[in-house]
Amino acid sequence: MNVTKNIGILNALIRITIGLTILSWSTAKMVKHPWKESYVFIALCGAMKVAEGIVRFCPVTALFREYKDEMNDQFLPASNQEDDGTTLDADQILPYNPS
């Protein structure tokens, strides 16, 4: 998996803003209640969102795109011809979508 930019600038700015908000909220709560460990986890999640916005790479988005590419490769053959030389039409290539 390549670590290339896979989110836009607006998405990155939103992630940074929300991540800093979550990070500041959780650290303020940790000051009041230092015995609660859930705020540490929330702070890590907020820091992760800030890092995703700065680097402009989201691993979840990369996994979804990789999964989508694998599914396209699995269901769509490289050419429109079968092994016996007959051609395939669109109904035989595309999977059934009931919606």
Can you characterise this structure?
This protein is mainly α and 99 residues long. The protein has helices at residues 9-32, 38-55, 59-75, 90-93. Helix 1 (9-32) packs antiparallel against helix 2.
Summarize this structure briefly.
This protein is an all-alpha fold and 99 residues long.
Q: What overall form do the CA principal axes indicate?
A: elongated
Strand content: under 5%
From the alpha carbons, calculate the radius of gyration and give it in angstroms.
Answer: 22 Å
Helix segment tally? 4
How far apart are the termini?
32 Å
**Unreliable segments of 5+ consecutive residues:** none
* Total beta strand runs: 0
Helical residue percent band: 55-70%
Summing up helix and strand content along with how strands pair, one would put the structural category as: mainly alpha
Q: What kind of sheet is the major sheet? A: none
Series of H and E elements: HHHH
Mean pLDDT: 83
Characteristics:
mainly alpha, 99 residues
What is the topological layout?
Blueprint: H1 9-32, H2 38-55, H3 59-75, H4 90-93
